[in-house]
């Protein structure tokens, strides 16, 4: 299966059957089977850069999805961010360049999430939308205009912006060429 | 009724299995198309940011609308207590479920995220008529399933009247809901009309009955069971009334819009634009799907011929597809009018007539919906006793031998 | 999934801290309220606080300043949100576009940017069957692409043609603006910037290098530039007949 669109679940029995056939034909589980053992090898997790996770590793191993689901809804619907716990923070800590300097593809087993998810046969579609590796924003672009807040800085409340307390702050604007629409 | 109607599973030889296999191939082609569309994205279809609903929606809406209409025959039997329609009721209920499944399958398979069907089942926004429709569809299948059970289970037969009534009300609501999906689109001049609900109900009567007649005729011809002329005559006369009613509603709908300056633009585009929608409306719906079958069904020369009744039903179906195409695609092809009195232009196709060319995969997906419906129907009548062994005139409507009134009451 | 275990995922100190913050806010609010202008209190939001309905983000477009041939706002939006063309204009996403208007009788020509109008009574929010289209308390209309099923009914309902459907697999999205195939998307008012106290990219771009035709701010804050300008100058909504109470208003149309 190409690209990210492989993360589809069958929903009608007919489609499920069709997809199951595709899965058995060239599904990921089969590709990495070591010959002879007949068992799926245990996942090998890339080491994280941070000292510790937002929760004990054992707890995260079983419950990370609860944390992700709950806090994504907080952020999406209410605009709440919990410092150090956005999906970008997870990526920053857990995803590293491979020796050849490339970022691992989110569908590859070298990718932190996929290592376990392939083993547990649980499909995720997070990275159809979310960036799968840390991205440094160019000047003028991004949440803070390319100047991410230091990890220990307090976020700036909108009303405390100093001069002209009623206004948002302007930022320098990137001169980079734009995208598709004209 | 003295003479009980006997229902039996369809006998059927090689022809049955060949036909079923043919539908199987169509379904497989449809699923392959879905896989292709989901792998590469919707850009491989003709659908764009301008025409966001395409051929799959034409087939899906047609099938969903027809699904409710095909229950008509059963309603005439149970709600209006017309005995001659009673033997026709089980097939009518069955078709209404299978057509709905076919239509919903197409609708769901075209979603950008058909893998999230569970989301659609667990998250509801009750301000959305679309969400209401999901309830109405699921409920409809349940109600009709109960109706079928009461119909086929003799002990439950006496409760058939209230269940039939619930099914009747439910299906009117359902099709009103389907029409309101378009009727509630306040921003688009082509829709934005309360008439959409009732017009879809009338459309459903016509499309559904045409499908019913064809399925009835082919399954009886194919299995060699007798089908009486009186039954067909009743159905084709009913079909004629429905065809006329659709034409009436279309006339009111378009005349109202022509009186409304804001809607004149889109009306002129559809009715007199000289484009594909103009041809499909006048040639497809009004002439071939309306006037011609009306003439065929009521003309003494052709009205009693099974061949011409079948031709009329096919024409009604084709005309119906043309009408749904005009409503769905034509309505989107006409641009939104953001700034009345101004000519607008942009890189996002503002102010231009949008083009739509259906691609092969989406056509195959649409056709597979019909194949799903018909294959499911075939399997059901093969393995369950849906069809009466005989629909001879004297069986359906026994000659005027004095029946015991009390018994007739009990079975009505 | 039941609510209980989800609740437990917040560490106890986290909850305590939040409760404390809420209490502090309540106490200060009560103490200050009599002599203070409330909007200032309401506008102060740390990132770990929920957005408030006391704020309504809005944009004022001065069409008399919007010039022919300039597309700084569009370019800035594309750059900011990682929108790339696939060379297929009919399916490519456009969150903001420039429209040229010509009066049919007088021939008078004007230009303006068209984007999601962030309606108070948004048709897209009304029609979305799963509730993926929603309006944040501070007036920003968004698509929760975690649950969007890609039915495109919102695109049928939007009077402004403001939404796009992602019709092909995307790669290299920017982290602050996640986008993906099979879902519907539209202008977010650069919610990631607004939440951190900055203006949308288009507004900054227009002000820095363009004619400065875009003003952005809290329409409910009488001290804000946008509220003052709205009070002083003529402005109108596009398709005001629909009474959607849009968050984007235009001067000079």
What is this structure, in a nutshell?
The complex is a heterotrimer of chains A (182), B (412) and C (253). By secondary structure, chain A is mainly α.
Spell out the key features of this protein.
heterotrimer, B: 412 residues, mainly alpha, Formate dehydrogenase/DMSO reductase fold, 3 strands, globular, C: 253 residues, alpha+beta, Alpha-Beta Plaits, 2 domains, two-stranded antiparallel ribbon, disordered N terminus
Number of helical segments with 4 or more residues of chain B: 15
**Spatial strand order of the main sheet of chain C:** 8-1-9
The helix/strand order of chain C is HHHEHEEHEEHEEHHEHE
User: Which of globular, elongated, flat, extended, rod-shaped describes the shape of chain C?
Assistant: globular
Helix content percent band of chain B: 55-70%
End-to-end distance of chain C, in Å? 50 Å
Number of helices of chain C: 9
Q: What is the total domain count of chain C? A: 2
CATH class of the largest domain in chain C: Alpha Beta
Of all protein chain pairs, which has the greatest interface, and how many residues does each chain bring to it? Answer: A-C, 61 and 84 residues
* Major beta sheet, strand line-up of chain B: 1-3
Q: Tell me, what is the CATH class of chain B?
A: Mainly Alpha
Distance between the termini of chain B: 9 Å
Mean pLDDT of chain B: 92
Order of helices and strands of chain B: EHHHHHHHHHHHHEHEHH
Q: What's the quaternary structure here?
A: heterotrimer
Largest sheet of chain B: 2 strands, antiparallel
Count of strand segments of chain C = 9
Beta-strand percent range of chain C:
15-25%
